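Need tokens for this chain, all 146 residues.
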Amino acid sequence: MTALEIESFGFGHQAAPDAHLVIDLRRHFRDPHIRLDMRQLTAHDAIVRETVMNTPGIKQLLAGLVAAIEGFLAGPTQTVPVRVAPGCAGGRHRAATVALALYAVFSGDLNVAAELGVDDLAKAYVDRDLDVTLVHRDLDKPVIDR
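Here are the structure tokens for all 146 residues:
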């Protein structure tokens, strides 16, 4: 069975995980951390997910990531899981939301995908036999002062 491992992380906590694709979300996408009312929140909170997913360009980035990941999954070596690591400064907001969106797409979870606005991408994976795991390495770590 083909496997996909998704691990969100914060560059401010430690180095990026070893992965086929490391996605740096620090400079181009809306950062909920700058709003004091969201700073202590995480991707577990709807307002954080909404803020990130309503950032211009994020859905296009996700569509591109899905295509890139699909390329890795189609490769000749199926004995090693494809590893994808979205990262942001602290790993609590942008990276965790993008990781959740990728997980919803590749696991075919249409409910979560619809909430995140990526259900069009997830439809192709509803009946696919793909082992998908999601880990948020730094989601529960303290907020980084910056």
